Structures are given as C-alpha cells and as structure tokens.
Amino acid sequence: MVMRRQTAKPPRTRKPPSASAQESAPSRGIASAPLFWSVVCVLAAILGGGALLGSKEIYSLYHLKQEKDILARANLELQDENQRLLKTIDRLQNDPEMIEDLIRRELNFVKKNELIFLLTSEGAKPPTPVRETPPAVPAKGKAGTRRQ
Predict the structure, then answer these.
(1) Residue 48, CB-side half-sphere exposure with 13 Å CA sphere
(2) Which has fewest Cβ within 10 Å: 4, 39, 140, 148?
(3) Number of neighbouring beta carbons within 10 Å of residue 28
(4) How far is the C-alpha of 78 from the C-alpha of 71, rounded, in Å?
C-alpha cells in the first residue's frame, strides 16, 4: 500500500462574472420575480389592515360570541318553559282532577257538604269578617259643593 502525501491546496476563489455575462444571462433569483413582489405587497396590505382594524373587529367578534352564548342559554330556558306550559295546557284540557284542584286553590271553592276547619294558634284572635258598607253619599249644601 502506497501512501500519498497530502499537500495543502490554496482555496478556490470565484472569478466575478464579466459585465457582458450579467447582461446576457437572465436573472433566476426569486426576489426579482414580479409574482413574488405582488404577493409580498398583498400580504403587507393585509397585515397592515389587520393591524389598523383588527383590534376593533376582534373585540366586536368577542362580544358577539358572548351575546350569542347568552341568547342560546335564554333560548333553551324558553324552550323548557314552553314544554312545561304545553303540558299544563294539555292537563287543563284533559284532566278533570287538575281542573278541580286549580279551582279549589285559585277561587277557594269547596265541594258540596264539605266542612272547612280554620285552626288558629293559642291566644290568637279569630279573624273578623269584613263587612262591606255602602259608600257615603255627600249631603247637599255642605262644603265642597258649588252654589250658583
């Protein structure tokens, strides 16, 4: 096996292209393409517009989402109440026991031959019945009447 001796080679340097070579060869860099610059300008406009208007729009969107959530909860509550009322309507139309119970509670009706016992605590006075008195009729010639 033969060993070769390695010698240090000078670094390669690139020769600058001549002026005629630059003019004749088309540039292939991405930065010179018109499509690239138009995309950059559009993105800059979008980002600039977003910076100016975005904070208001994001804040408005946040509040709209909160309002939507509140309205959705209120809608669910109203649907539950609607279902409850529909059941009550059905029972009022078809259940005689419900009708009787409602009349007894709301209008204080009693059945025929039914006795009601009112219990009071010790030392308490029984309730006194309220008597209706006819309204007082003002007498003629008293104060408050006009003479002509």
Answers:
(1) 6
(2) 148
(3) 7
(4) 10
Eight-class DSSP state of 13: -
Locus of tokens 């000078």: 10
Task: DSSP letter for 30, please.
Answer: G
Task: For residues 16 and 111, give the distance between their C-alpha atoms in angstroms, rounded to a whole number.
Answer: 118
Task: Give dist(CA 91, CA 93) in Å, integer.
Answer: 5
- Amino acid found at 132: E
List for the chain the helix, strand, coil content (%; round to 5): 55, 0, 45
Q: For 108, phi and psi rounded to 5 degrees?
A: 55, 40
Q: Mean pLDDT for each 10-residue chunk of the chain (148 residues)? A: 63 62 54 78 82 72 94 97 96 92 86 80 69 61 52
CA distance 78 to 126: 45
